[in-house]
């Protein structure tokens, strides 16, 4: 069976003027985000203080001004001397500088030296959902990129698609997408910075069906691929049988209102005399046998066969 699959690829290679179909290669897609801001997506985003966090404030050589302070729901802390001070949205280093400024302004200390440590981050979790092995909420206690968080969730499942959607808590109306590859030698490009409160959703792989007079009819998961072509789908199905009516092939595609039957010039496509057509998630490629009855089969006869179709992963 392996030899048959290899020989079919060789036939298709000749038919396409020496161009190896994209699905035959292990396609690795680097991160490609459409984040509508000017800041670099690879720059580490420092953790910021928010309501509910627990801070430890240490004022050098002044223990009576030091202690553990909880940030209230308004983003403020109450200093032992100096009053209420807003710290939400600041890093711990920025909060320390602000406390020093308040102590000087109120003439509590002339030259204060303050260090702030976050003991608890109340809202710094990152939600990871979709096609990962262990979805859930994961703490973010430092700078991490997209690959780090996917790894923390156990990695991708076998049904994971190529697209990962990231939504910032501060800007939920503008999510952006990244494309990830499956090969380990390409993971260095997955360096998109993840921020506290982000939501990461890994998409499910699309699926196409190839049925009828082919060597291995079934459903094929488009893992880490946005789409497949007709030639790629036929190759995955181990080619057409001798009885295949290549001139009568059809593509069944679901539109917004109903399913459509579209003719496919399979004989011309395989002979490199017509452009290879793209297949999308949910498409059904039907190759009838040469018998008159088989070439007239409609959607209602094809759909029941899909329920028991074997599911294969795209190499």
Task: Please tell me about this protein's structure.
This protein is of the alpha+beta class. It has 3 domains: 2-25 and 206-313, Roll (Outer membrane lipoprotein wza fold like), CATH 3.10.560; 54-120, 2-Layer Sandwich (wza like fold); 125-204, Outer membrane lipoprotein wza fold like. 19% of the residues lie in helices and 29% in strands. It contains 7 helices and 20 strands. The chain has helices at residues 2-15, 92-105, 146-152, 230-236, 266-270, 292-295, 299-306, and strands spanning 54-59, 67-70, 76-79, 83-86, 114-120, 125-130, 136-139, 144-145, 160-167, 176-179, 193-194, 199-204, 206-212, 218-222, 228-229, 250-254, 259-263, 278-279, 284-287, 311-313. The chain has a 6-stranded mixed beta sheet with strand order 17-16-19-13-14-20, with helices on both faces. The protein is rod-shaped. The chain starts with a helix and ends with a strand. Mean pLDDT is 77; it is low at 1-43 and 184-189.
Quick description:
The protein is α+β, with helices and mostly antiparallel strands. 19% of the residues lie in helices and 29% in strands. The chain has 3 domains: 2-25 and 206-313, Outer membrane lipoprotein wza fold like; 54-120, wza like domain (wza like fold), CATH 3.30.1950; 125-204, Outer membrane lipoprotein wza domain like (Outer membrane lipoprotein wza fold like), CATH 3.10.560.10.
């Amino acid at each position: 069976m392996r030899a048959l699959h290899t020989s079919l690829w060789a036939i298709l290679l000749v038919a396409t003027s020496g161009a190896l179909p994209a699905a035959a290669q292990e396609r690795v897609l680097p991160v490609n985000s459409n984040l509508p801001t000017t800041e670099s997506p690879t720059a580490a985003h420092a953790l910021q203080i928010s309501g509910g966090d627990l801070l430890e404030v240490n004022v050098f050589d002044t223990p009576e001004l030091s202690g553990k302070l909880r940030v209230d729901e308004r983003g403020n802390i109450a200093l032992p001397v100096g009053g209420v001070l807003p710290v939400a949205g600041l890093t711990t280093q920025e909060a320390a500088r602000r406390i020093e400024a308040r102590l000087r302004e109120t003439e509590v200390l002339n030259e204060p030296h303050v260090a702030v440590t976050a003991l608890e981050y109340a809202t710094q979790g990152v939600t990871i959902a979709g096609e990962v092995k262990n979805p859930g909420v994961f703490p973010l206690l430092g700078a991490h990129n997209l690959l780090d968080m996917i790894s923390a969730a156990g990695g991708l499942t076998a049904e994971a698609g190529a697209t990962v959607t990231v939504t910032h808590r501060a800007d939920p109306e503008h999510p952006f997408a990244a494309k990830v590859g499956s090969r380990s030698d390409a993971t260095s490009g997955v360096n998109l910075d993840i921020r506290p409160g982000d939501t990461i959703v890994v998409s499910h792989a699309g699926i196409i069906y190839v049925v009828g007079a082919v060597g291995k009819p079934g459903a094929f998961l488009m893992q880490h691929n946005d789409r497949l072509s007709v030639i790629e789908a036929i190759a995955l199905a181990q080619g057409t049988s001798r009885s295949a009516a290549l001139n009568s092939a059809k593509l069944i595609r679901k539109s917004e209102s109903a399913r459509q039957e579209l003719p496919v010039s399979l004989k011309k496509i395989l002979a490199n005399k017509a452009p290879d057509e793209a297949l999308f998630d949910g498409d059904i490629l039907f190759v009838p046998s040469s018998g008159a009855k088989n070439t007239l089969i409609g959607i209602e006869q094809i759909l029941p066969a899909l329920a028991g179709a074997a599911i294969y992963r795209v190499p």
